[in-house]
User: What shape does this take?
Amino acid sequence: MNRRLLFIVAALCPAFAQNGVIPYAIGYTQPSAFRAAPGEVATLFLYGIPFGENGRNRSAQADAGMLPTNLAGISVRVFQGNSPGIPAGIFAVQQIEQCGLSGVVTGDQSCLLTMVKLQFPFEFTGDPVLQPDGTVTFQLPALISIDVDGHLGRLFPLQPLPDDSHILTTCDASWDTNPSSVCDRQVYHSDGSVVTQDKPANVGETLFLLFYGLGRTDPAVPTGTPSPAGVAATDPIQDHPRVTLGIEPNFLNAVSSSPRAIVNTSKAYAMPVTITSRSLQSGQIGVYQVSFTVPAPSLPLLPCGNGVRSNSLLYATTSQGVESMALCIQ
Assistant: This one.
């Protein structure tokens, strides 16, 4: 909600009489610190970064293979405890101007929104600590620095998380960050095709989801490196799974783009779903694959078709909340 308002305010900024005031957020509390899990792929949205050295908008895309730690003059580091700065891997940098009419270049640096798609370092610690008395302690805040053209940036607080799950959507492949876009989470058949009304899932079939932000793995994979095969996602604490799944049958025509819920919204009668594997996807950077078997429903399902786009709702729950997506099962 706050980010959408921020984009609207910035878009209406007039192309004259600029005073350098940059809207950051609107609400009733100060914006919270950055939050991230080790290895998480996400985008930083930044104001105050100048044009590139050539006077043009910064725009760069990393080549295939290992990610660079500096792209278009921008680098990001995480500081935790007394450790030196741990560099993030950077996928892409893009600057857009948000003032004036659409397509009109004002050349006003205060109008620049800089987007940095990156992988946070796997090397910092996000998992909580189980104390001898049974209490659980989360990690203390770390610090993050955004450095530009070799100039060291100021330090901002960063809260390490055990996980910060984001199920990949239709917008992620094209790096569509427009707040007005509809970004549906997707469920995949084992052959990589998407589960749809026209290609539904079958009871007993193995499907999979793709995630960002599921945290620590075993073995560890260096930041910015395509994952080898066989890298498992771990649990933060023994007997506390990092992700669980459930299906609510006969939940018709649900949407797959609703925001992640802070609390578990699944009903008590949602069927538990058996996860068969959790691992980094081989050859990808920071992408987790969670496979599961579709359970047999306790009651007959209303078939998809004739106005029924989906007949079940799939829940994915982590320590940071619940993501849901429509599913068609036959």
